[in-house]
Amino acid sequence: MSAPALKTAPAAVPAAGAPGPFAAWLPAAVPAGEPDWLTTARSAAAARVASASVPTNKSEDWRYTGLRALLEQGFTPVDEPLTALLPDDIEDVLLPGLDAHRVVFVNGRFAPQLSVLEGLPAGLRIGGLRATLAEDPDALREVLTAVAGDGAHVLTALNTAGFDDGLVLLAARGVQVEKPIELLNLSVGLDEPRVAQPRHVVALGDAAQVTLIERYLSLGDALYCNNVLLELDLGRDAVLRHRRIQIESPSAFHVSGVYLRQGANSRYDGINIGMGGRWSRTDLVMRFGGERAECDLKGLYLAGDQQLIDYHLDVRHELPRCTSRENFKGIVYGKGKAVFDGLVYVAKDAQQSDAELSNRNLLLAPSAEVDTKPQLEIYADDVKCSHGTTVGQIEPEMLFYLRSRGIAEGLARRMLCLGFAGEIIDALGSAAIVEHVADAVGRRLEAAPL
Amino acid sequence: MSAATLEEVLPGKAEQRGPSQKTAEAEAEYGHLVQAEYEHGFVTEIESDTLPPGLDESVIAAISQRKGEPQWMLDWRLAAYRKWLDMPTPKWAAVHYPPIDYQAISYFSAPKKKELKSLDEVDPILLETYEKLGIPLEEQKALAGVAVDAVFDSVSVATTFRSALAEAGVIFCSISEAVHEYPELIQQHLGSVVPPTDNFYAGLNAAVFTDGTFVYIPKNTRCPMELSTYFRINTANTGQFERTLIVADEGSYVSYLEGCTAPQRDENQLHAAVVELIAMDNAEIKYSTVQNWYPGDAEGRGGIYNFVTKRGDCRGVNSKISWTQVETGSAITWKYPSCILRGDNSVGEFYSVAVTKGRQQADTGTKMIHLGKNTRSTIVSKGISAQHGMQSYRGLVRIAAKAEGARNHTQCDSLLIGDKCAANTFPYIEVKNPSAQMEHEATTSKISDDQLFYCRSRGLSEEDAVSMIVNGFCKEVFNELPMEFAVEAQKLLSISLEGAVG
Fold first, then answer.
1. Which terminus has fewer CB within 10 Å in chain A: N or C?
2. CA of B437, closest CA in chain A: separation in Å?
């Protein structure tokens, strides 16, 4: 496949070498006046993009997920900020029961007119990345590009080289934010296929506690791509409850990378719900920077209707006495394809590491496919590590039980699927979110040819 | 090159082995005192007919000529060789070793005396070697009813129980013999499960294989005895390229045992074998291996590189192929006994115990490819890693779109002894049929202090306690082994772990 033509000569890309198949994703120029450390990171990333070729299924990272569909669209960067949206326009997508501080991004750009950020507690700072970089870049120095580093693959490098805006959430030491913070990412279809590459940065000081609800939605049935990257930095004893809910349009492409660095005794509680988009890939990269930290990752994915949903987990226990739990469940139907690749790594001296990785799938249609690869790499002996995977269908006995009580087959199947998904949905916590996701899953299953 | 010049090379080679044999014999004598050392490390002084190191088309022609092979066999080898030249060495396994110089290996080595009619004619030194390994051929005739096709280096020198087997119509002979006597069977089946283009090592094997075993079980026949062959690598610098082909025709059953030991060496030796199993309608093949090649010393010097391609094809309906392996030896093991479940209702099984200690590395597992309806597979893999041992389970379960009602259960458990070893699990699961039931579970842990304490408090020494716990850990797999092998395997396991605990 030929690379999409370059629209303009990208200033951020070094002249050396071929521009690479992803070069068209990069903006013409990055904003001027960025700090030196960021410029260095950006040009290193741009060099990686320039020298990268399209990964094929020979690459272990992309064994089951082809990039062809993604590259065929000829995405180019969003160039103009979209300011035309007014609070009334987004009324429909808000969750009425959710009392939260709200920060809204439209096509990857901060939309202050839609955000509700009054009454933030002292010590909590929320704003746009572009503005923060202009005003106080040093506040980001320890986190921005430092947590993600070189990243997992070329799409991470693309974000580093080309991000333009994103969330900055900084909680000072000991700040306990009572209300959840809603990070609403809205996408609107534009004249041609566009890619937005927001970069969200979240840093929690020692013992800070925050709940972050990150949502991805489309306004209309738009074709676009989000290549999102999150850098999360948790201080000592900090707690981050993180809900990620991706319900984008069936034409959307979604790439996200979540990079987490956890301080000693900190706790990360993350739940990923992935059900939207035509093609999506999520990399969850978890690192412990201190002992006795806990990382709890859950996920639920629904793939049908020609959808591809890919979750990659990379959890490294480099230090002793950390705990991680990975529990992902999937429902795959129609012509859907789900890919799960989970790696738990325990380094040589990471004694008393405790990890449990689980991936369970319901495969419901002849054209659907599940490829799962739960891996353990263990170099320490005093550990407790396990993983389990299943691929199966709805139990005929359960179905019979419901049918015998007069429940129609279709409804019975949906009930059983919802029951399967319930373990993850119920863990979401807040009633408004649980209801929202249960409702969305229910509606999807109703439309699905089960 | 001519045969005459090759003969001239030999005497020098044989002499070089003198001194090492002395030490080796001493070792053999006191071996039981030096616990946890390799039991079977001795070199037998026997003249070998060896080709000088190197590989090109003339070497292949020379191998073929020496074995008096028909033209089609030579053509097959040469075609494989030409394809092999373009193949890359596999790099994906989690094992580390310096690149192998394929031109430094001698591709043919055969004990010199040939054409033996009875056991009495077998070189007494050879027989003694087997005695040391605990496989007295004479006794075995009377005992257990096990026929042994003893492979010493690359050529079969003795085959027992031929007549008993012939009565049942079972063909059990060396593959070179089969090429002459049953060319139609060989032409039909050789390379049909593991084609020469399958992978780098299978390609190399197809080009240069020197010998191996051929088994054919006719229709509706239950093989009257367990078949077994003992492999043994000898002669320094000789790679061993065995090729085994087992065909079980409709409604037949065979149990095949393979055991390996090799003398102690300082240089790495390459072992690239190919095993092909074919099970027709309602046939069953049980293939058991106890592998105890020389693992190298505690620092990782020497040892066998065991790069083997083993695959079974459940071609017929209701067929069954079962692999059981106990892997305690080799410096590096790269081995994935697999089953292609083509026939409806066919069954594939894989039971494995692998031990890595010292500097041993093992990347092993299985592939279960479900193609037919109602196919079932079971994988039980137990890995034990001690000292600097490094072990990976790498497995694939693929359920194709048409494999209605397929079922798989996989269990892989790893036991870590010491904080320098490693255990990895890399399962690949690909499911394209919604009626499939697929379960995979894996655990990694050390021997729990509670278990140890319980045993110690009842007066067991720590070593005995560990040995007992480890044997319990592996029991599921040992249960699958034929009786004699199960005993040997348990013994091997405790010997392997001596000195590794505590």
1. N
2. 5
